[in-house]
Design brief:
Layout (H helix, E strand, L loop, with lengths): L2 H18 L10 H15 L36 H11 L1 H10 L7 H7 L1 H9 L5 H16 L2
Helix pairs in contact: 1-7, 3-4, 4-5, 5-6
Length: 150
């Protein structure tokens, strides 16, 4: 692919992501899908849940969540928007978010419980995120898009 065509492909790809909504939510249709996958992952990791599947990385497909993000507070490293999305959910849905935090506090993966345990720690980790799965996802999607052109 020559330079002008590759530039066009990248531009079209990024435009598609921007039109889709928030580029920080790569592989999610919107913030609601982010929360749906988050809560599903908490349920999956709960010790009382007998049906074990792996934690999902995103809304599109059933790719596994990276082990970089499955320990307490580690999920906040997944991107700079992670804290703000969880913060908004917890503030907008105080009752259910407190229940998820308390009733599923022993679930190995529970960023909502982490949020309530130490909100400032969660905020700081997210703000200082050096691993950004959104960038990785955009690059993978772009690579697959370009491959599909040929």
């Amino acid at each position: 692919m020559d330079a002008p065509a590759s530039h066009f492909a990248l531009g079209r790809f990024l435009l598609g992501h921007r039109l889709q909504g928030d580029i920080g939510l790569n592989r999610y249709d919107d913030s609601e899908e982010f929360i749906a996958v988050l809560v599903t992952n908490i349920y999956i990791s709960d010790k009382s849940n007998k049906i074990k599947t792996g934690l999902r990385s995103d809304h599109h497909g059933f790719n596994p969540l990276s082990t970089d993000f499955d320990e307490p507070f580690e999920f906040f490293k997944s991107g700079k928007q992670t804290f703000s999305l969880i913060d908004a959910f917890c503030k907008d849905n105080r009752g259910i978010s407190v229940r998820i935090a308390n009733d599923l506090a022993d679930a190995p993966f529970n960023p909502i419980a982490d949020y309530f345990a130490d909100t400032e720690k969660a905020r700081t980790i997210s703000q200082n995120a050096t691993i950004n799965r959104d960038i990785k996802g955009v690059m993978e999607d772009m690579s697959n898009y370009v491959k599909g052109l040929f």
